[in-house]
Amino acid sequence: MKKLFSLFIFLCLGLINFATIQANPDDIIIDYEGPICCEEIAEYNGLKDYYEYNEISLEYIFKNSNVKFSNIETNGGKLTDVLVDNTLTFNFLIESKNSSVEVKSDYNGNIIQDTIYFSEYDGKYFTSCVSEVQAKREVLFYQLENGIISESEYEALSYALIAQDIPNEVYVESYAQTINPTTTMDIVLQWEDDWGAKHTLNYTKVEVIKRVYFGETLDYPYYETVMDTLYSDKNGHISYTFDSAIEESYGYYIKVYAVSVNTNAVDNNKNQYYYESAIAHNVPTGSTIYFNYTFDMDTDLGRAFQLSQALYYASQYAKYLNNRVDIQNCTLCYGDKGAYYDRNSCIYIKAISNTGNYPQGYADWDVVGHEYGHHVQACFPEIANNPGGQHVVNTNNADYQYSINKYEKKYAKDRGMRLSWAEGWATYFGQMMQQYSSSEL
Predict the structure, then answer these.
(1) Are the beta carbons of 419 and 426 closer than 8 angstroms?
(2) Are 94 and 55 in contact (CB under 8 A)?
(3) Pair 108, 17 in one domain
(4) Is 73 inside a domain boundary?
(5) CA atoms of 85 and 45, how far apart (whole Å)
(6) Fewer beta carbons within 10 Å, N or C terminal of the chain?
């Protein structure tokens, strides 16, 4: 254990040159300058939420000298001009309602890629780095913000987009006898990763909802009641028994949220990811309703569920360290922005990884755990007096503080060391949170 801890200290401090400084305590202050962690090696510069014209100019910045531009691939549009220097600048002509452009580069022998998706509405071209579906949802969000559609219309249309590829079935097993006055729900939730392996969707929030229709048909008008809010167990399972309904026209269904006890996953616009099942109508007394769902990584919703799982297990390790008490709630925004923590209990995870041979953003539990480690640091400032600032693996953290943030050398060294410790601790946390829950994972 001592050797392991010594190695950990060495790795943290290895990011800076060894030196001893004497700094005035009054000069050592936490003056956070942007995200705690932002380790992108390349990114689009100044990408807009939408563009007013179909011919746009884009700037792609290479933050690391080892990144070498390979090529650009287009779909539903064409390139009109390309300039390659330390920055890649190109013009893209959008020629269809839904289009995309992808930059591919080489980073230490691995192919990295960044895709922008466009969706047109009223002569405006809305962007997303997540997916074509999210670009379409950005259109809906614009319509909501500008009073073109109502909140209920937005929710219905937006949900229809994210759930369109997920099978929606419900199975009811009825019994001949009606002595039992109760109905049972049997719910099994899973998610399937990019390699086809299935995992149980654990400790995930589920609402059981009853719908009662006023008319003789299973249609409007109706009212709904949330009968209970439950959480799946460590096997992704819920068994729930309740009194059978007596109304002539009614139905039961569930909503599954990318939410756990003190974590949740949302999109760029802070909208909650959730899944709504089909409705089991007029279920006979004593029956069992089966809801069995597996969410794969082909949809933004499935990816949000995986991120929610990673965040939950990070929170459980933090709870263990905090004498079995939950720490402050943390939200994960899955979308266009790189990996960082904003110090306001919010983690940002970019959909696509462009850091070489790494998992995609939604599948990289190391990164999610690292960013949650910064959330733990924010909740317990004694862990790390982190000055924040730019940092990239295999570079000297003090150099950035001196050359970019313009601190005097003695303060740059101090800030670089504190930043190295904070980043090293967060990485350590991200590894340990997976070890802590290894029996379930």
Answers:
(1) no
(2) yes
(3) no
(4) yes
(5) 14
(6) N
Residue 441 counted as domain residue: no
Q: 226 φ, ψ to 5°?
A: -80, 110
- How confident is the model over 4-59, as pLDDT tens digits? 444 444 344 333 332 223 333 344 444 555 566 655 778 888 999 999 999 999 99
What CATH number is given to the structural domain containing 135? 2.60.40.10
What does the block give as tokens for 9?
């200290």
- The reply to whether 260 and 140 lie within a common domain is no
Range of the domain at 112: 46-162
CB 277 within 8 A of CB 239: no
Residue 431 shares a structural domain with residue 310: yes
E strands present in 216-269: 222-231, 237-243, 250-257, 263-266
pLDDT per residue as tens digits for the range 103-127: 998 888 888 888 999 999 999 999 9
Q: Which of 111, 127, 162 is the last residue of a domain?
A: 162
Q: Where a domain ends, among 274, 297, 320? A: 297
- Residue 417 per-residue DSSP state: H
- pTM of this structure: 0.87
Two tokens, residue 332: 């994960």
Query: Is residue 358 classed as helix, strand or coil in its secondary structure?
Result: coil
Residues 6+ apart with CB under 8 A from 329: 262, 263, 264, 345
| Spatial distance between the Cα atoms of 418 and 415, rounded to a whole number of angstroms | 5
Backbone angles phi, psi at 107, to 5 degrees: -130, 105
**Same structural domain, 307 and 293:** no
CA gap 185, 173 in Å, rounded: 10
